[in-house]
Amino acid sequence: CQLIRGGYVNRLFAGNALATHDIEQAIFGTSLGVRLDCGDIVEAGHEHHLRAINRIRRIGSIKKAVETGVLKSGIMYECVQHNVPFLLAGSIRDDGPLPEVITDTLEAQRQMREQIRDVTFCLMVATTLHSIAVGNLLPAWVKVACVDISPATVTKLMDRGSTQTVGIVSDAEPFLRALVAELEKTP
Predict the structure, then answer these.
(1) Whole-structure pTM value
(2) What is the pLDDT of residue 155?
């Protein structure tokens, strides 16, 4: 959220899961029913992500959820508030999905191609499928950093032709925390 607020994110490519769990956290304070503030399991909390999806579906869109005050925080909230375009590409295993999720993979790929035309740097964080998908679309001159806790993600991306990728094997949270701290130091 701080990277978006700071103007460092020009567009966001993700899937249904990132948006769903972000919205679940914003509405219920949980991720798959686990309270993020203390780690407690909430009774029937395993339904929270579905309840979050259904709430957004009833409203009609993530943007409308922000405009009506239902969604008041999180990554998707910040994208709407700061006019950061987002593209949510779906998969066959998605719950819901959220209204903005493009379920036609060829259409999602077409739209991704359009949106990467002026990209000069791409940060890929903790998503094997989307990192490889975007890596396959990027021209070789685009600088890429891939952060994932799994070394296989970084290796797969580089093995599939995205040789310009710098791989960082790390959990996403401490990496993003360190990145924000460094960016705050620069004038």
Answers:
(1) 0.91
(2) 82
Residue type, 155: T
8-51 pLDDT per residue, tens: 999 999 999 999 999 999 999 999 889 888 989 989 888 999 99
Cis peptide before 97 (omega within 30 of 0): yes
Q: How far apart are CA 162 and CA 116, in angstroms?
A: 15
Q: Which DSSP category does 42 fall into? A: P
Contact 95, 20 (CB under 8 A): yes
DSSP state of 102: B
Taking the C-alpha atoms of residue 133 and residue 122, their distance in angstroms, rounded to an integer, is 12
Q: Is the distance from CB of 19 to CB of 62 less than 8 angstroms?
A: yes
How many angstroms separate the CA atoms of 170 and 187, rounded? 27
